[in-house]
Design a protein that fits this description.
Order of helices and strands: HEHEHEHHE
Radius of gyration: 16 Å
Number of helices: 5
Largest sheet: 4 strands, parallel
Number of strands: 4
Low-confidence stretches: none
Mean pLDDT: 94
Length: 171
């Protein structure tokens, strides 16, 4: 089931209603079991279809160049809405599985696209909106390319100042 928190290019209709119904109660229950708040890692599966070269959320596609800034703002809006629900997004990935073209929600970034998105849009947007302390991870994909992918982003002095680390899946 595809869902997105926005339906317009100004993000005025942005809301996390589905998360408030399904995810936030689960997180609150986990915090009750633990006896204290937990830090959350958020990892997007796809920008909204209207932001992508394919016009749909699944089957890969890329973030449209004219949507980079609004997509960067989307992350801060998401973090802010969770904050309003007293849940801390402490970690954030740029994209879940940025090399995978899936039958479900997915978006393709090569290493240079991810680096440039972080450097020119996402990092500055998070900082501007007060979320510069959120720990941003790049790659968030399979382990076999973690070094090469991380190296492209982390060797860039402007991009690396926004990146906390590299994420990977160990399966």
């Amino acid at each position: 089931y595809h869902y997105t928190e926005d339906n317009d290019k100004m993000l005025k209709s942005f809301n996390i209603g589905r998360d408030e119904k399904f995810l936030i109660p689960l997180i609150r229950d986990a915090q009750k079991v633990r006896g204290k708040k937990i830090d959350i890692l958020a990892s997007p599966w796809s920008p909204s279809g209207w932001m992508k070269t394919t016009g749909i959320m699944n089957q890969g596609g890329k973030l449209r160049a004219d949507c980079r800034q609004i997509w960067a703002e989307y992350y801060s809006k998401y973090i802010r809405e969770y904050e309003k629900n007293d849940i801390k997004i402490a970690y954030l990935t740029v994209q879940n599985e940025p090399k995978a073209k899936q039958n479900w929600d997915s978006c393709i970034y090569n290493a240079e696209e991810e680096r440039d998105f972080v450097k020119n849009y996402l990092g500055p947007s998070l900082r501007k909106n007060g979320y510069g302390a959120v720990r941003l991870l790049v790659w968030d994909h399979n382990k076999e390319r973690v070094f090469e992918r991380g190296d492209v982003v982390l060797s860039d002095p402007e991009a690396s100042k926004f990146v906390w680390g590299t994420g990977f899946h160990w399966y």
